[in-house]
Write a structure and sequence with these properties.
The protein is mainly α. It contains eight helices and no strands.
Length: about 190
C-alpha cells in the first residue's frame, strides 16, 4: 500500500471514530416509540456502520436484493427475541465484530455464493435485531428501526454500486478499523 493511500485510509478511519461517543445502546426508557426506533440506527455508530456495510457489500457484488432483504427479515426475528427478553452473551462485542468483518469483506471484495452471503448477513442481523429489541421493546419502535435500517441498507447498496472499486475497498478498510476499535470499547 502506498504512503498516500495509507494516509487516506487513516483519515477515513479517524473520521469514522469521531462518532464513537454515540454508541447505539443508551437506555431509551419511556421514549421507545416509532421516532426513537427510527433514530436508533442513525445515532449509534456500530449500527450505522453495519447497515451501510451490508449495503456496500451487496452493491459491490452487484447481486439481487436478497442480502438486504435477508438482513431485514433476520433483524426482525432478532428483535422479537430481544423483546421476549433473550439476552445474548457478548452482544456488544459481537455487533462490533460484524462491522469489522463487513469491512474486511468489502476491502477484499469477497464474492461468496449467494446462500453463504445471506447466511452471514443473517447471523449478523440476528445480533443487531436482538440489541434493538432489548433496547426498544415497543412494536412501534420496531417499525421505526426497520424503516431506518431499510433506508441505510438501500443507501449503502447504491453507494456500493456507484463508487469506484478502489474507493470502495478503502471504505472497507476504514470499516474494519472502526469495527476493531468498537470491539476494544465493547
Amino acid at each position: 500500500m502506498s504512503a498516500k493511500l495509507m494516509k487516506k485510509t487513516a483519515a477515513v478511519a479517524t473520521l469514522c471514530l469521531l462518532a464513537l461517543p454515540a454508541m447505539a445502546h443508551p437506555g431509551h426508557g419511556e421514549s421507545a416509540g416509532f421516532l426513537a426506533g427510527f433514530a436508533h440506527p442513525f445515532t449509534g455508530i456500530d449500527h450505522l456502520l453495519a447497515m451501510l456495510g451490508v449495503g456496500l457489500w451487496g452493491g459491490q457484488q452487484r447481486r439481487s436484493l436478497v442480502q438486504p432483504a435477508t438482513f431485514l427479515g433476520m433483524m426482525l426475528l432478532g428483535a422479537v427475541t430481544g423483546m421476549a427478553g433473550l439476552t445474548v452473551p457478548g452482544l456488544e462485542t459481537g455487533i462490533a465484530a460484524t462491522v469489522a468483518l463487513l469491512g474486511l469483506a468489502i476491502a477484499l471484495a469477497l464474492a461468496l455464493p449467494n446462500w453463504l452471503g445471506m447466511g452471514i448477513v443473517g447471523m449478523f442481523a440476528l445480533a443487531h435485531g436482538n440489541a434493538h429489541g432489548q433496547e426498544l421493546p415497543a412494536a412501534s419502535a420496531a417499525f421505526g428501526f426497520m424503516l431506518a435500517s431499510a433506508t441505510l441498507l438501500c443507501a449503502g447498496r447504491f453507494i456500493g454500486q456507484v463508487l469506484a472499486e478502489r474507493v470502495l475497498r478503502l471504505a472497507g478498510v476504514a470499516l474494519t478499523a472502526a469495527g476493531m476499535v468498537l470491539m476494544g470499547l465493547a
